[in-house]
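Both lines are retained for reference:
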Amino acid sequence: MAVKDQVGRYGEDVAARYVRESGWDVLARNWRCADGELDIVALDGGELVAIEVKTRRTGTFGSPAEAVTRRKLRRLRRLVAAWLGSQQQSFAGVRVDVIAVTVAKAGAAQIEHLRGVE
């Protein structure tokens, strides 16, 4: 596995642990369809949350959250619609969150959680 893939997987593991520790239920990880992938699908109370995880080791190319562009958000919304279409339950609401993970050289990773990104 390439280093960037290992970093990304680590970030997704950190984000999933953070979500669970926040009391949310993780419904799916790395859900895929023909149009792409949702990193984490979780339930925050009765609200469905599609979580895009971005992980970086340095700030050289900006913060991890800056990598989530309008184009990426449009794609995420299409993926959420596809995920909802594959389910047989309803939710009180739906939103897209971004969890940005910065891997520290020493110590714990830093997490920035952006809720309801539009």
User: Anything to note?
Assistant: Strands lie at 25-33, 36-44, 47-56, 93-102, 110-114. The helical segments are 3-21, 70-85.
